[in-house]
């Protein structure tokens, strides 16, 4: 069998923190900057006799995500206890959803290199997060436990094995993050551990006599917290499986290893064996006795469905077809929901989507990238930006001056009109006032008329530049051009 016949097959488990103020089953605040073990209570610490209470907002956000992924929302979902021991899991079990989750089926369409591939969604379910181990870096080989994260609402999205390359795995992760942020389901700051990826990787090596596919044993890489790590980790495991098969074509070595769970060393770019991969029976699941099942009213599900906004792909298509934007502009502007909302308000106020897009792409995005801030922190409202654009469109200021005015709006919070008036930046557009300037420029450049007569357009450009110099940059170039051509043709 050639290496080309070994088809990578990847399914992804993605965990993301929901955008709630409090934890999943207790009123403790969800904070990422709090001192260790200060956002805890008897419930999330698993003290004897305590009772969990379900966070309603967490359930609503989870259902919103499931609906956006095209999942079926069952009329019954239950909570289960998933038992395992780990130092940062004080109860020694995790409240999760096992065999009856709140979202089933669905898909996510992902774009990569101009093509779209579809990843099926197996299930969407809710659970609570564990705590966090902090390992000493002083060589003492000790660890401390921070339980602030224990009980944080955690949404898990499990995909079908429809991903077939490391690049596709990364693109899927990026698309899922964009969707979650777009919906307001989660903030997905991976540096804070708010989104983590666990790809399950194998290679299809052929077909059994009955026609069913045969795969190498699945490798799961735990807790990847960046798109770069997802791509590199998947690529490493695909290559490792191929190398094992090249050395042992019958696959005995991989079969002996069986399903495995591996960690990822990002500095070295290699995975390492942690343990054999657990099966469901290893967790001794049973229904959570302290929580009632989730039985949603159909009317409530429809209200949540109505709260789902226009999704990025549909919005991008509308921007291209209805607003006439180039595909690149539409893609950039719909990457972030707040940016797309801001743009639409500007476009409506200005009455010209392409003009609004030009300002967003050239001016607004530059400031956001330079300052590394969300558009909510731009310091300029859509109405204020539209005011600056209208001054340029009316010829009150030039486009170049408009850029300068916008920068001062960001710095000062003042309106474009106020800045133009305070700093006397308005262009001179009065033809009578500019005629004397044009006459002077032509008189000082007698060869210009001859060059113009020979069809040298650059002559007009040079004369416009001179006219602007004489007026301190305030001459409206459009009016100056019209006067120059009129006089040079006379």
Explain what this protein looks like in three dimensions.
By secondary structure, the protein is α+β, with helices and mostly antiparallel strands. The protein folds into 3 domains: 3-299, no CATH class; 310-422, no CATH class; 431-489, Arc Repressor Mutant, subunit A (Orthogonal Bundle), CATH 1.10.10.410. It contains 16 helices and 15 strands. Strands 1, 4, 5, 6, 9, 10, 11, 12, 13 and 14 form a 10-stranded mixed beta sheet that branches. Strands 3-2-15 form a 3-stranded antiparallel beta sheet, with no helix packed on it. Helix 6 (312-321) packs antiparallel against helix 7 (327-333), helix 14 runs antiparallel to helix 15 and helix 15 crosses helix 16. The radius of gyration is 31 Å and the shape is elongated.
Annotation keywords:
ten-stranded mixed β-sheet; three-stranded antiparallel β-sheet; 490 residues; 40% helix; Arc Repressor Mutant, subunit A; alpha+beta; elongated
> What would the average pLDDT be, to the nearest integer?
89
Give the termini distance in whole angstroms. Answer: 82 Å
The biggest sheet, with number of strands, parallel, antiparallel or mixed sense and barrel status, is:
10 strands, mixed
| Structural classification | alpha+beta
Helix fraction?
40-55%
The helix tally amounts to 16
Q: How many DSSP-defined strands? A: 15
Low-confidence segments: none
Shape descriptor: elongated
Give the DSSP E fraction (strand runs of 2 or more residues): 15-25%
**Could you say how many structural domains there are in total?**
3
Radius of gyration: 31 Å
